[in-house]
């Protein structure tokens, strides 16, 4: 956190808004891992920075930061609106716009977060449609870690919906992928969710 804050102070003295954006995005990820409630403010700051750049990929990430934070804090409608606004920007960027992005493709994260938000708001059909779209996009961009992410979150959604057979199938696919690529986090999380789904089936 200290390193991020020092970087932010340095970048505030210069015109490089892309560097500022990258640093704030890293700080937002740190706060998200901690469960820190400063996500919405950082998301708004990122949106403000994006206004200085004609860059829809930056706007997608900015709305993702604010939207997921608001959703996890219980402001479902505002979080959903941010996430859906981000999703509406997908057609304006190339398919592999995030190919150099570390970790999960932000578009797939947007779709999965929107799915969980729609579910909590009482719209299971819309939630499943967003989760299916995340699986489809992850397959199209052919990024294994993103595919694993999409499978886990789709499986979680189907577990919530008591569609245990689909959740089992998704977790079985996830575990094959996790073993193939050495994704220990997804192997652990997928095993837990598989067990829950199998218990649901009796």
Report on the architecture of this protein:
By secondary structure, the chain is mainly α. The chain has helices at residues 2-11, 17-34, 39-50, 56-72, 76-88, 106-120, 124-141, 144-160, 164-181, 184-200. The termini are far apart. It is built from 10 helices and no strands. Helix 5 runs antiparallel to helix 6, helix 7 (124-141) runs antiparallel to helix 8 (144-160) and helix 8 (144-160) packs antiparallel against helix 9 (164-181).
How is this fold's topology laid out?
Elements: H1 2-11, H2 17-34, H3 39-50, H4 56-72, H5 76-88, H6 106-120, H7 124-141, H8 144-160, H9 164-181, H10 184-200
Helix pairs in contact: 1-2, 2-3, 2-4, 3-4, 4-5, 4-6, 5-6, 6-7, 6-8, 7-8, 8-9, 8-10, 9-10
Summarize the structure.
The protein contains ten helices and no strands. It is an all-alpha fold and 202 residues long.
Tell me the number of helical segments per DSSP (H or I, 4 or more residues long). Answer: 10
Which percent band covers the strand fraction? under 5%
Helical/strand content category:
mainly alpha
Mean pLDDT: 85
The end-to-end span amounts to 46 Å
* Biggest β-sheet description: none
Low-confidence stretches: none
Number of strands: 0
What is the H-and-E element order?
HHHHHHHHHH
The portion of residues assigned to helices is: over 70%
Shape: globular
Q: What value does the Rg take, in angstroms?
A: 17 Å
């Amino acid at each position: 956190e200290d390193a991020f804050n020092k970087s932010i102070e340095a970048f505030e003295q210069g015109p490089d808004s892309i560097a500022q954006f990258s640093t704030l995005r890293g700080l937002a990820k740190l706060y998200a891992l901690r469960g820190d409630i400063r996500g919405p403010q950082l998301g708004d700051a990122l949106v403000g920075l994006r206004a200085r750049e004609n860059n829809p990929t930056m706007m997608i990430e900015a709305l993702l930061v604010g939207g997921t934070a608001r959703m996890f804090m219980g402001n479902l409608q505002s979080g959903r609106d941010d996430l859906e606004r981000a999703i509406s920007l997908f057609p304006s960027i190339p398919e592999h716009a995030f190919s150099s992005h570390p970790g999960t493709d932000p578009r797939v994260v947007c779709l999965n977060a929107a799915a969980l938000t729609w579910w909590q708001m009482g719209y299971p059909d819309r939630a499943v449609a967003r989760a299916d779209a995340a699986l489809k996009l992850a397959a199209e961009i052919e990024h294994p870690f993103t595919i694993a992410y999409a499978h886990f979150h789709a499986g979680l959604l189907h577990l919530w919906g008591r569609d245990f057979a689909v959740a089992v199938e998704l977790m079985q696919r996830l575990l094959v992928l996790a073993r193939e690529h050495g994704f220990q986090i997804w192997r652990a999380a997928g095993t837990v969710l598989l067990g829950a789904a199998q218990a649901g089936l009796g």
